[in-house]
Amino acid sequence: MRDDQVQVDFYQRMRASIRAWLERKGKGFKYADYLLAAPDLFHLLCRLAVDPEVPAAQKAKLAAPIIYFIAPLDLIPEALLGPYGYVDDLVAAALVLNGLVNEIDPQIIKRHWAGSQDILTLIQEILKVANELVGKGLLGRIKGAFGSR
Prior knowledge:
Blueprint: H1 3-25, H2 32-50, H3 56-70, H4 78-81, H5 87-101, H6 106-112, H7 119-134, H8 136-145
Helix pairs in contact: 1-2, 2-3, 2-5, 3-5, 5-7, 5-8, 7-8
């Protein structure tokens, strides 16, 4: 199977899993919009990683959250908590993308964004609620792992 097919399959499985989980939770789940953005953030990270306009040093930083999304074991494992387990992946992606915004032209990021909301605003919103999403202790570990203090 080609790498791009693996990426698409993972993206589709993640999207379907999150939607089904949110339907079971019912309307009004506080972080639904953030969870629904997870597949689009994964897609964005992958697209930026292959964009020739993104410098190699920045591409290297993108590899960590891509692998983290795919890894079966992480700080908040999806295997135990279902799609809610993507909240740490969201925070990791937002941290790396926030750093990337300061290193490359933000239009490159916007060009690859497939989500419906403004990506720069979404990154800031996720970072604002990160402490609520994962807790202060885990937030510190995620920041340490993804190079943001």
